[in-house]
Specification:
The protein is of the alpha+beta class. It is built from two helices and six strands; from the N terminus they run βαββββαβ. A three-stranded antiparallel β-sheet has the order 5-1-6. It has a three-stranded antiparallel β-sheet with strand order 2-3-4. Strand 2 and strand 3 form a beta hairpin. The chain is globular, with a radius of gyration of 12 Å. It starts with a strand and ends with a strand.
Length: 76
Amino acid sequence: MIYCVAFSEVELHLGGLGFRRVGQTEGTVRFRADRPDRLITVRAPNVNGDVPEALINDAFDAAGLIPPTWNVFWCD
Protein backbone atom coordinates (compact mmCIF):
# COMPACT_ATOMS: atom_id res chain seq x y z
CA MET A 1 0.00 0.00 0.00
CA ILE A 2 1.37 3.40 -0.96
CA TYR A 3 0.39 6.53 0.90
CA CYS A 4 0.61 9.80 -0.98
CA VAL A 5 0.61 13.51 -0.24
CA ALA A 6 -0.77 16.25 -2.46
CA PHE A 7 2.23 18.01 -3.97
CA SER A 8 0.51 21.33 -3.35
CA GLU A 9 0.68 20.57 0.40
CA VAL A 10 4.43 19.89 0.14
CA GLU A 11 4.97 23.10 -1.81
CA LEU A 12 2.89 25.10 0.68
CA HIS A 13 4.85 23.69 3.64
CA LEU A 14 8.20 24.41 2.01
CA GLY A 15 7.03 27.95 1.22
CA GLY A 16 6.26 28.42 4.90
CA LEU A 17 9.84 27.41 5.67
CA GLY A 18 11.18 30.04 3.27
CA PHE A 19 11.79 27.76 0.27
CA ARG A 20 10.91 28.69 -3.29
CA ARG A 21 10.85 26.57 -6.43
CA VAL A 22 14.03 27.09 -8.44
CA GLY A 23 13.96 24.32 -11.02
CA GLN A 24 12.37 21.20 -12.35
CA THR A 25 13.48 18.23 -14.43
CA GLU A 26 11.39 15.40 -15.74
CA GLY A 27 11.41 13.59 -12.41
CA THR A 28 12.37 16.11 -9.71
CA VAL A 29 11.55 19.57 -8.40
CA ARG A 30 14.16 21.69 -6.62
CA PHE A 31 13.50 24.26 -3.92
CA ARG A 32 15.98 26.68 -2.33
CA ALA A 33 15.85 28.74 0.83
CA ASP A 34 17.93 31.90 0.90
CA ARG A 35 18.52 31.95 4.64
CA PRO A 36 20.21 29.77 5.47
CA ASP A 37 21.25 28.72 1.98
CA ARG A 38 19.59 25.30 1.70
CA LEU A 39 18.43 23.10 -1.13
CA ILE A 40 15.87 20.29 -1.21
CA THR A 41 15.11 18.11 -4.22
CA VAL A 42 11.84 16.20 -4.21
CA ARG A 43 10.20 13.84 -6.66
CA ALA A 44 7.94 15.56 -9.17
CA PRO A 45 4.23 14.88 -8.72
CA ASN A 46 2.37 12.34 -10.82
CA VAL A 47 -0.36 13.33 -13.28
CA ASN A 48 -2.81 13.61 -10.36
CA GLY A 49 -0.56 16.03 -8.47
CA ASP A 50 0.42 13.46 -5.82
CA VAL A 51 3.74 12.14 -4.55
CA PRO A 52 4.51 9.15 -2.29
CA GLU A 53 4.83 10.18 1.36
CA ALA A 54 7.91 8.00 1.90
CA LEU A 55 9.80 9.75 -0.90
CA ILE A 56 8.90 13.21 0.41
CA ASN A 57 9.96 12.25 3.94
CA ASP A 58 13.25 10.86 2.60
CA ALA A 59 13.90 14.14 0.75
CA PHE A 60 13.21 16.12 3.94
CA ASP A 61 15.58 13.88 5.91
CA ALA A 62 18.31 14.23 3.28
CA ALA A 63 17.96 18.04 3.45
CA GLY A 64 18.13 18.03 7.25
CA LEU A 65 14.49 19.06 7.63
CA ILE A 66 11.88 17.50 9.87
CA PRO A 67 8.88 16.42 7.82
CA PRO A 68 5.48 17.42 9.19
CA THR A 69 2.58 15.04 9.67
CA TRP A 70 1.11 15.04 6.17
CA ASN A 71 -2.51 14.54 5.18
CA VAL A 72 -2.04 11.19 3.47
CA PHE A 73 -4.30 9.05 1.31
CA TRP A 74 -3.95 5.75 -0.47
CA CYS A 75 -2.76 5.89 -4.07
CA ASP A 76 -1.05 3.80 -6.74
